[in-house]
Amino acid sequence: MADKVLMKGNEAIAEAAIIAGCRHYFGYPITPQTEIAAYMAKKMPKIGGAFLQAESEIAAINMVYGVAAAGRRVMTSSSSPGISLKSEGLSYMAGSDLPALVVNVQRGGPGLGGIQPSQSDYFQATRGSGHGDYHMIVLAPASVQEMAELTVKGFELADTYRMTSMILADGTMGQMMEPVSLEFDVKPAPEKPWATVGTKLQRKHNIVNSLSLVPEELEQLNFERYEKYNYIKENEAMYEEYLMDDAEYAIAAFGIASRVAKNAVNEARKQGIKVGMIRPITLWPFPVAPFKKAADKVKAIISVELSMGQMIEDVRLATECKVPVTLCNRVGGMIVSPEQVLEAIKEVAENGGAK
Amino acid sequence: MKNMKIDKRITLLCGHYGSGKTNVAVNLAMMMKKQYDKVTIADLDIVNPYFRTKDSSEELARAGIKLICSEFANSNVDIPALPQEMYSITDDTSHRVLIDVGGDDRGALALGRLAPKIKEENDYEMLMVINKCRPLTRTVEDTLEVMGEIEFACGIKFTGLVNNSNLGEETTAEDVLGSLPYANAVSKATGLPLVATAYKAELHNELSDKVPMPLALTLQDKIL
Fold first, then answer.
1. Which of A114, A141, A181, A191 could bridge to A108 as Cys pair (CB 3.0-4.6 Å)?
2. Smallest Cα distance from A66 to chain B, Å
3. Nearest-5° angle of CA A345, CA A349, CA A353?
4. What is the ipTM of this complex?
5. Domain that holds residue B135
6. Which residues from A are below 8 Å from B76, CB to CB?
7. What is the largest distance, in Å, between two alpha-carbon atoms of chain A?
8. Is A172 an 8 Å CB contact of chain B?
9. Smallest CA–CA separation between B89 and chain A, in Å?
10. What is the pTM for the complete model shown?
11. CB-closest option in B18, B136, B168 to A179
């Protein structure tokens, strides 16, 4: 028992961030992620860290910008409407190549929506979120243990590539409690010679800025950033394949939807339907390889989402539309049931994959 | 081994959030219903909009237990409202009442309004639910800190402890047994009696004669 604790997903993120060396948290409360802020408020003062409840989400993300520019591991967290507010800052951080961790514990939308879980910020997370050509690394945990592990991984990736990492969770992942082991190896933050920490009159001063006055230079910066993104696409995609070896049909699902879908896959297997699941763990970069492979052997793919069909576009792109991809979903705070997913599997199997 | 007994009219359940207060509360209500005709469970949580007593509303209704709960619990909005019926807790003394208080000192604040009447009637038990497996109450010192904050917020002193140390579904008998020294240490440091050691019902055969004041929790949270 000594090595496991019972944690909410939100708490696991907060504790893992502290373990990863994050000593600066700025945020503004919003359900269903408030436990992250509450945990930080309690813990940070005891370990010499800084917790600050900002006057708004916009203020919080700009505080994150400041600490990131000073080269320290820093984070903020919010839920869907709050991420919309932070998106201007996220674009500025991308334009300044600043590393940080941002957590989105999604709720139903659009607008104020509601406080129940959703995955409808997939486009927002994977297509930038703010303005301009940029990406964030987007990590989608499916257990409280992964909430912790991907938080550490998120900081490491952010520092490695000088990018924002986003944990894209949902209200269920944030609120549910599971036993967690908090023993992981953390790579220390790399040297950051670009950080604005004072020259001590021994070097030229560093500049952290997203403004470019010369269009040719701005274009060049964008080209270089996309070379980096291409490298990340080749090297950092993460996914889990479940019973895919002999699968004739495949489920695509991440986060809480993948947990529900796994139960449906198991039930369908009992009923003799050869179905497997591909669970993207990184949503950007999207794990293209397993879908490309699946496209040559399965008859159909079902994208199980808590959105009106967002990831389904990436599945279609990855499979180059070689097989039909259908949607099985609930939205607005509702969660798909194993029975609903099982029905979708049976329907596809009866049609032999044809639409 | 003695079993848990509650002979006071009002039982208050407080604790760190996620300690299992609600789960203990609904189980205690079911237990009390066997002994008393009129039993009420009151959900005064103003902190957490999820995982509420209302989750068990069907079971409670079937058992004939009255539920007092904010209409916004488990809804699509996070409104920290108290139910207007809460005043019946102290006004209608014909009922045995279990009060499920929100987590930490922020949750206990909601009690302030009822505290003078509860103390005046002086027929209550105020129990601290402790869980060694929760990250912010793993040590005796941290637990004492939370207890002090709760007492300060609600103006009522604790009268007993419920050891509900658990790791959720994965809890083993060893986990519960391993928490006994911690529970005893909290009891010693506070001078408060351990009125129950709670655990999921599946562990009853393994634990009933090995822990003080055993309390098997038959009604479990629904999980995905």
1. A114
2. 30
3. 105
4. 0.88
5. 10-217
6. 108, 114-116, 333
7. 74
8. yes
9. 29
10. 0.93
11. B168
